[in-house]
């Protein structure tokens, strides 16, 4: 138990809201797929699979048994954060929601969205450095200040922090991996360096949590949670690294590739 | 048939060193942290700079092992591989990481020791001599690879 005597907010409303949002997200993607299939070539069903997995993982951090456990158990909390901030964003990026959205929207609206994607603001936040600071910096604020304790006392703060964890994780993933629509592109080397730095500071943070647990978490729970953060982060970042390097490998293929005998 | 392509020496060196660094970091993690559990995840006397250095180095090593392999695949597909240069670079990467870890991380920054509850000197010596040996093998192989390139 991490803080049995702590005053918890009532999270039932949030759990219901998250459940509804997830269900709507699953239906919306499916109907967008059907609309897109009428106008364009068939949208790959595997992308829907990534979407469903991503949404379920993200939602499970905030709703259901894992979410309930995570209010009192730091290990469950950390599993939730790995799912919400790292794995779900990666899966969702591979379902290419922006591309599907652009195919589905009426031309005028699609133009407006495209205008937004090309704006200076989006250019700024999708720069890998800005995205990494929003992502990892946010985690430092959460675990190294009183925010962690405060968050459990206020439903709104709790929701806001978790929304940030998810959005910043998503933003960071799209700033590194160019699979969905990407308007502002940066070089492979730059993205590689930022990814290494982000992973490095993620490792540093997990050791700081191990040494100085936030709030009134039990030492043993903090240690297991911190190691889970360290190695879980390694596994998911290894996936990011492999995907990034594979994309580099494909993009640098010698031009007359098909004509060459193996 | 196609003409013989000149090997891309710079990429061979980077690829070999990266893969060597990454592989040694993996060996360190899997054997000494996980299997033997000699290394500790966190040593309560570690200064912040040590945690920072260790975190960044290990993050880089994870990236390096993957990029090293993809670069090797790229050299193969372009037929610009130079095997002896690559192997020499690989040993330099292995030894370089081991030596850096043994001297800077273990000793200067005191991140963690090779093993706890034992007389540490033999372990430190074994660790660093292994590193120096691997590095020397790499350097000797590199000199031979260079001669081979100049002769060929």
From TrEMBL, chain A:
<feature type="transmembrane region" description="Helical">
    <location>
        <begin position="73"/>
        <end position="94"/>
    </location>
</feature>
<feature type="transmembrane region" description="Helical">
    <location>
        <begin position="230"/>
        <end position="249"/>
    </location>
</feature>
<feature type="transmembrane region" description="Helical">
    <location>
        <begin position="155"/>
        <end position="176"/>
    </location>
</feature>
<dbReference type="GO" id="GO:0005886">
    <property type="term" value="C:plasma membrane"/>
</dbReference>
<feature type="transmembrane region" description="Helical">
    <location>
        <begin position="121"/>
        <end position="143"/>
    </location>
</feature>
<feature type="transmembrane region" description="Helical">
    <location>
        <begin position="188"/>
        <end position="210"/>
    </location>
</feature>
<protein>
    <submittedName>
        <fullName>Cytochrome c oxidase assembly protein</fullName>
    </submittedName>
</protein>
<dbReference type="InterPro" id="IPR019108">
    <property type="entry name" value="Caa3_assmbl_CtaG-rel"/>
</dbReference>
<feature type="transmembrane region" description="Helical">
    <location>
        <begin position="12"/>
        <end position="36"/>
    </location>
</feature>
<keyword id="KW-1133">Transmembrane helix</keyword>
<keyword id="KW-0472">Membrane</keyword>
<keyword id="KW-0812">Transmembrane</keyword>
<feature type="transmembrane region" description="Helical">
    <location>
        <begin position="48"/>
        <end position="67"/>
    </location>
</feature>
<keyword id="KW-1003">Cell membrane</keyword>
<dbReference type="Pfam" id="PF09678">
    <property type="entry name" value="Caa3_CtaG"/>
</dbReference>
From TrEMBL, chain B:
<keyword id="KW-1133">Transmembrane helix</keyword>
<keyword id="KW-0472">Membrane</keyword>
<dbReference type="Pfam" id="PF10002">
    <property type="entry name" value="DUF2243"/>
</dbReference>
<keyword id="KW-0812">Transmembrane</keyword>
<feature type="transmembrane region" description="Helical">
    <location>
        <begin position="125"/>
        <end position="143"/>
    </location>
</feature>
<protein>
    <submittedName>
        <fullName>DUF2243 domain-containing protein</fullName>
    </submittedName>
</protein>
<feature type="transmembrane region" description="Helical">
    <location>
        <begin position="48"/>
        <end position="73"/>
    </location>
</feature>
<feature type="transmembrane region" description="Helical">
    <location>
        <begin position="85"/>
        <end position="105"/>
    </location>
</feature>
<dbReference type="InterPro" id="IPR018719">
    <property type="entry name" value="DUF2243_membrane"/>
</dbReference>
<feature type="transmembrane region" description="Helical">
    <location>
        <begin position="12"/>
        <end position="36"/>
    </location>
</feature>
């Amino acid at each position: 138990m991490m803080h049995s005597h702590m005053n918890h907010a009532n999270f039932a409303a949030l759990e219901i809201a998250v459940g509804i949002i997830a269900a709507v997200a699953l239906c919306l993607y499916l109907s967008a797929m059907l609309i897109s299939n009428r106008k364009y070539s068939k949208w790959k069903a595997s992308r829907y699979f990534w979407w469903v997995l991503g949404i379920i993982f993200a939602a499970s951090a905030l709703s259901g048994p894992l979410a309930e456990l995570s209010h009192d158990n730091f290990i469950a909390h950390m599993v939730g954060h790995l799912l919400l901030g790292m794995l779900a964003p990666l899966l969702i990026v591979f379902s290419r929601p922006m591309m599907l959205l652009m195919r589905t929207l009426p031309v005028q609206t699609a133009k407006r969205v495209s205008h937004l994607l090309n704006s200076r603001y989006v250019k700024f936040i999708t720069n890998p450095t800005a995205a990494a600071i929003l992502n990892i910096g946010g985690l430092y604020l959460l675990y190294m200040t009183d925010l962690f304790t405060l968050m459990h006392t206020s439903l709104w703060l709790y929701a806001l922090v978790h929304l940030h964890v998810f959005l910043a994780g998503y933003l960071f993933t799209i700033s590194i991996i160019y699979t969905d629509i990407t308007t502002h592109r940066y070089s492979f080397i730059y993205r590689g360096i930022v990814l290494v730095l982000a992973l490095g500071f993620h490792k540093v943070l997990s050791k700081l949590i191990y040494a100085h647990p936030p709030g009134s978490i039990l030492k043993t729970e903090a240690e297991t949670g911190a190691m889970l953060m360290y190695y879980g982060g390694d596994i998911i970042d290894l996936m990011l690294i492999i995907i990034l390097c594979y994309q580099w490998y494909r993009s640098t293929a010698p031009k007359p590739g098909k004509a060459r005998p193996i | 048939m196609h003409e013989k392509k000149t090997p891309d020496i710079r990429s061979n060196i980077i690829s070999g060193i990266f893969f060597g660094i990454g592989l040694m970091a993996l060996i360190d993690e899997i054997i000494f942290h996980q299997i033997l559990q000699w290394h500790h995840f966190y040593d309560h006397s570690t200064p912040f700079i040590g945690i920072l250095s260790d975190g960044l180095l290990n993050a880089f090593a994870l990236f390096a092992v993957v990029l090293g392999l993809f670069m090797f695949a790229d050299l193969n597909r372009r037929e610009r591989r130079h095997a002896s240069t690559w192997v020499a670079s690989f040993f330099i990467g292995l030894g370089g990481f081991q030596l850096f870890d043994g001297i800077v991380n273990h000793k200067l920054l005191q991140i963690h020791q090779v093993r706890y509850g034992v007389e540490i000197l033999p372990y430190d010596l074994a660790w660093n001599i292994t590193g120096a040996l691997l590095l020397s093998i790499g350097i000797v192989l590199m000199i031979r690879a260079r001669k081979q390139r100049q002769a060929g």
